[in-house]
Amino acid sequence: MTPADPGPEGTRPPPTRRRPGGRTARIRQQVLDAVVAELGEHGYDGLTTDAVAARAGVHRTTVYRRWGDVGGLLADVLDAASDDDWQPPDTGSLESDLAALNQEIYAALTTQPPVMAALIAASFRSEKAAQAQQRLWEDRYARCEIIVSRAVRHGELPPHTDARQLLIAATAPLYHQLVLLRTTPDPQLPGHAARTAALAAAAGFFAEPPSARDA
Q1: d(CA 172, CA 165)
Q2: Positive/negative CA dihedral, 128, 45, 114, 176
């Protein structure tokens, strides 16, 4: 899932945070765009509030007053990613849904400059960014669980399939290969990871334990 999602059947995603409009919204967007650009070009160690302010064309005190420090800037970039109407793919089958989702992740992880990988790395250096990243992933997983609930309804998966575990199994190989191991991008990876997870899920490998079903 990209720093870019609906929840399980019968649930809704968390309400979108209200954001100011007008000039305030324009300044915020300028600053967040500058954060992303600076992070992609210079990484976490080269990211400074002064550089962001200069790139955004705003006074440095504006950045300090609203965001405080680099951690606050990164947290707002990540929180802003949840303020969207992104929906997970609905292609008609579990495997193709997972493959389409993985393709989005693959594209985000291989785009240059590597902003998504830089955001992930930054979350290990800033507590504010780490908390915001956790909120973002919770949002994304919640939205994407509808892929699994649809597959259960369509008879592709057994009842009581653990959506979170299936989604992790389907998407984790991309992060492992492209972020941790930094292997050469392989266009076949998104589809292969999706197929492997879909086959394992259909065989019942991601069934919820009985205790979870009764909760």
Answers
A1: 10
A2: negative
> Which residues, at least 6 apart from 205, have a Cβ–Cβ distance to it below 8 Å?
none
pLDDT at position 21 is 60
> Residue 43 carries which side chain, given as an amino acid letter?
G
Q: Tokens in use for 55?
A: 């790139």
Burial 189-202 (b: 16+ CB within 10 A, else e): bbbebbeebbeebb
Residues in the chain: 215
Residue 172 has pLDDT above 60, yes or no: yes
- Residue 184 has a CB neighbour count (10 Å cut-off) of 7
CB atoms within 10 A of CB 95: 20
pTM (predicted TM-score): 0.84
Model confidence band, residue 23 (pLDDT cutoffs 50, 70, 90): confident
Given a cut of 50, whether residue 103 has pLDDT beyond it is yes
Dihedral-angle region of residue 43 (phi above 0 means left; psi in -120 to 50 means alpha; beta otherwise): left
Query: What is the residue whose two structure tokens read 């507590």?
Result: 127
Instruction: For residue 208, name the pLDDT band (cuts at 50, 70, 90).
Output: confident
pLDDT of amino acid 142: 96
> What whole-number distance in Å separates Cα of residue 114 and Cα of residue 104?
14
